[in-house]
Amino acid sequence: MTGAITAEFQAARPEFDELYAEMGQMLRVFKAQAATSDPGAQPLPEYDERGELVTPPAPDPTPTTPGAGTAVGTYPCIAYQLDAKDKADLGADMAVPLWEVVAHWSAPLHDPGLLFEVFGGELPKPLLLSPLGDIVDEGTQRLCWTFTARAPEGRSV
Fold first, then answer.
1. CA–CA separation, 98 vs 155, rounded Å?
2. 76 and 26 Cβ atoms separated by less than 8 Å
3. CA 128/CA 135 separation, integer angstroms
4. Among 20, 43, 94, 146, which residue has the least CB neighbours within 10 Å?
């Protein structure tokens, strides 16, 4: 991309910041917890000769967000549920609700294995989301991040 186009994309950031503030939604980013079979994960619990647990499993550090590890941070976002036409345009034939999320450019969404919680705005309670595909850096200029996600709880608003 040329420098002029890059500057044009960067100039749009304040407009997005105003939209984020008006919507009032926030995106909490989590790294997914490592499965016990993953390298570097906690070892499996040990059992005594009667088959009883000697080392109890560690409690889930995030009981309200199952599968999520520690939070990476919280960033402004705009999240909306896709209607039937939007889902059909994507080729999605899923019964679970799909959401489109536009997140602030400063969110560290370039790593794989992320889970999300959207809260605030008009949402009645926090919404857990799991991305369906790649998270896209729009314009490759850090204007904003976009991704489509599903609600693992199957909850819609």
1. 10
2. yes
3. 16
4. 43
Residue 125 lies in a domain: yes
139 within some domain: yes
| Residue 123, in any domain of the structure | yes
Q: Residue 84 is encoded by which pair of tokens?
A: 């039937």
What is the CATH classification number for the domain harbouring 87?
Answer: 2.40.10.270
Are the CB atoms for 114 and 127 separated by under 8 Å?
no
Helix (H) or strand (E) holding 7: helix 3-11
Q: Is residue 156 part of a domain?
A: no
Tell me how many domains the chain contains: 1
Taking the model in full, what pTM does it have? 0.70
Q: Cβ neighbours of residue 35 under 8 Å, at least 6 residues apart?
A: 41
Q: What's the CA dihedral at 122, 123, 125, 130 to 10 degrees? A: -160
Q: Of the given ranges (6-10, 29-33, 127-131), which has the lowest mean pLDDT? A: 6-10
pLDDT tens by residue, 96-151:
788 999 999 889 998 888 889 999 988 888 998 989 888 988 867 777 899 999 88
Nearest alpha carbon to residue 156 among 74, 87, 88, 60: 87
Domain range enclosing 20? 3-35+65-150
